[in-house]
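Worked example 3 (structure in, sequence out).
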């Protein structure tokens, strides 16, 4: 596996809000924004961050408080989206569950090095 430059990413939590008969997503004001900064080295790290932080957020938000939540992972320098996962509130239990196959990463589309630019300090790039 080739290893590219690693970097820091920011994890943020978004919650749905219904207004004017439209659903829109807003940063969760009940949690810090960004929720956390993580250091990643590979594409697998992005998925691991989404799983681990998603489980933590599910516990912090409490059962059924929202219809669900989204977690975004963005490049710490450029702000570009590098990962996303969505969780929903189970109608039966109120517990938050991840959508099956719901985690997305820029790596899924071969965009390992799309964060590099001409600066001396590389932005986040990932291993395939």
């Amino acid at each position: 596996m080739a290893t590219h430059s690693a970097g820091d990413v920011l994890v943020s939590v978004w919650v749905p809000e219904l207004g004017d008969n439209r659903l829109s997503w807003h940063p969760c004001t009940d949690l810090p924004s960004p929720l956390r900064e993580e250091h990643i080295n590979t594409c697998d790290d992005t998925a691991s961050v989404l799983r681990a932080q998603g489980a933590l957020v599910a516990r912090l938000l409490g059962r059924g408080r929202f219809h669900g939540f989204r977690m975004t992972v963005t490049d710490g320098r450029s702000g570009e989206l590098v990962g996303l996962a969505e969780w929903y509130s189970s109608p039966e239990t109120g517990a938050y569950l991840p959508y099956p196959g719901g985690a997305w990463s820029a790596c899924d589309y071969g965009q390992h090095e799309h964060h590099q630019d001409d600066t001396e300090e590389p932005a986040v790039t990932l291993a395939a």
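Notes: Residues 1-5, 114-122 have pLDDT under 50 and may be disordered. The CA atoms of residues 87 and 100 lie 9 Å apart.
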